[in-house]
Amino acid sequence: MSETRLRRSGHMAEDDISNEELSLEKDSEVGYEVPSVWKEWRSLVFLVALYALQGIPLGLSFGSVPFLVQKHVTYTQLGVFSFATWPYSLKLLWSPIVDFFYFPVFGRRKSWIVPVQFIIAALLISLSYVAEDWIQEGAIYKLTIVFVILIVVVATQDIAVDGWALTLLSKDHVGHASSCQALGQNIGFFLSYSVFLALSNASFANRFRSEPIDAGLITLSGYLCFCAILFFVFTVYLCFFISEDPHVTLDEDEKEGVMGVYKKMWKMVQLPAIRSLIVLLLTIRVAFVAADNIGPLKLIEYGFPKETLAFMVFLTFPFEVCFPIIIGRWANQYHGSALVTLRNGVLFRCVIALFGILTIASVPSDALATPFFLQVLVLQLFYSFSSNIIFVSQCAFFNQVCDDSFGGTYMTFLNTVANLGGAWPKFLVFYAVDALTCKNGEVCRVFPAGTDGFYPVALFLFVIGIIWFFVSKSRVQALVDLPQSQWKISLLDR
User: Fold this and answer.
1) Lowest CB count within 10 Å: 74, 274, 343, 392, which one?
2) pLDDT tens digits, 480-490
3) Which alpha helices (H) appear in 302-336, and where do they start and end?
4) Angstrom distance (rounded) from CA 107 to CA 226
5) Which pTM does this prediction carry?
6) Own/partner pairs for 46-50, CB < 8 Å, 24+ apart?
């Protein structure tokens, strides 16, 4: 490659920098010059902001709401609510529509991002009037329906943002989009999960009051209204002050219409490399479903204060910000390094899951005793680090192998399969925990009275994870050794 080639069909109005103006760094290993990543800082900040907005409703549906409704429903009912997150895993079904239909003058990605973010704001405002009552009533089906709609809209925003990320950054630095996604979603999730749970808890809030009262600093209704305003203000700014290149070159299939995109998607599934990757992505998170989704709920059930768990994330937040940046460097060392890092991250995550199981089993009568508090804090830090290894490495690998001619839909397909890998086992795991739990005084077929079904389920999944690590070695290495051409849809046209 004798010259630097930038693909910047989407850019910010205030960052209208020509290729000649970009400072260049000499890369002695590859023998060509690449634009300095610091020259794209505005684009990077913009991507982080978009992903942070996306993380706000995700933090509610994946985090806060299950915590708030837990004492009013069974684990099987919580499994029903987990279906609210499925649209985020099935966004592939409508991603070609998002990729194809748009207003050229307004911008290919803005045509979707602007209206869906206004819709999210409206949904959050509407939900603020009924959410607290539904939680107190344990109205799990009403909550599930509303959050399904909300996550459908959020998933649509994600499709557009993923596609924009491929063109907003230069080709040489597109791998940093994964760090932007991880950092942004961590920030949004942190606000809706840790910050909200802490500030809405009376015990936590009373630490900052001269006279204690039975109320938090904020309510769920108030937080939903605040988030709605945040979405509205940012979207107005995006609408009027951020420009996108209206000139978009469509490939031949897209020129034929939206069906051309679906045809390409079908071709994509036929690629041997993609099929092999799908097998990995659908199984990679099975080992962590119980530890990730039920572990924190069990920790609270056994006496660890919910507000303390939320406050603990305050302490780990600086690490949450740094982890994606550090891991992003590992994952982008060379082509395929991200997938190797991902596999190693799975083993590390399995070890952390086992540590989490043992921690839950050892909750003392004084759950706030300093040794146990430090044990949970260390667990939280290692959990965050291992989760970021998997997430950032996964996104980095997708960016490395993505076929640019298929843009957002290619990325969305891979992200969708990855999300589905964590979504499909959820209900089964929640149901299994309820089914295998034998309360005191009960006579059960499988386990004696007093058995918590969480432990056999979580340990079984841990063993599955260890087996996955060893079995996946050859498949991962085969994917790493594949040339870039094997990931191109044009391969099937030869």
Assistant:
1) 74
2) 888 888 888 77
3) 306-331
4) 28
5) 0.78
6) 46/12, 46/168, 46/242, 47/161, 47/164, 47/165, 47/168, 47/169, 47/177, 47/180, 47/181, 47/184, 48/180, 48/183, 48/184, 48/187, 49/184, 49/234, 50/113, 50/157, 50/161, 50/164, 50/184
